[in-house]
Amino acid sequence: MRLQTPFVLAVLAALCACTAQRDEPEPSMPDGDAGMPASQAPLDQPERDVPPATASEQALGSLRVGAPAEGTISFAGFGPAAFGASAEAVRQAWGGDLGDERPAEPGGCHYLIPQPLGSEGYRTAFMIEGDRFVRIDVRDALVTAPGGAKVGMSGDEVRALYEGRVEEQPHKYDPEGKVLRVTDAGGGEAALVLELDAAGRVDAWRIGVPPQVDYVEGCS
Questions:
Q1: pLDDT, tens only, 154-183
Q2: Exposed/middle/buried for 136, CB within 10 Å: 0-12, 13-18, 19+?
Q3: What is the CATH number of domain 58-211?
């Protein structure tokens, strides 16, 4: 038995050494993302659940849900939707809810109106006729016509803004009112038509191509 004792002790020493090696934590391997803030680490999945910036009414604000953004209305049309474009092009240019109105008959006249519609009716409306975008009607004092005219402005202010381009006409329904028709300075066929009330101030305006821009009753 004394001859086997050194051998047994050697075996026990070897077993203890192996156990100690297994208990030591393995060294961590260098990682390209180590120490990188979570906000900067690359994503394994696309952010499918993150809504677009314009998904909420708060994000959309008054620029596209309540009223057109400054400078989007021109003698050419509305933003990227030129007069003559399709109704779908207008919907895409607006980027918000324009209702679901359809013409009573194919190619008939109808309006795309921003929703929700308030108790006072529309503030901005896009006329479609012959399946084409032909006119914009505005009754909102916050929306500026190309050249600077607005609801509430006096007739004299309008004449000064568009000097040499204004044709004055009687109002069809208001004997004390007037209609000012402004031609496009760029030589295009579109026109800006402003209706003046009895006090001589703009109470509504529209812009579009003839003959639709001259429809006094809109689509009626």
A1: 999 999 999 999 999 999 888 899 999 999
A2: buried
A3: 2.60.460
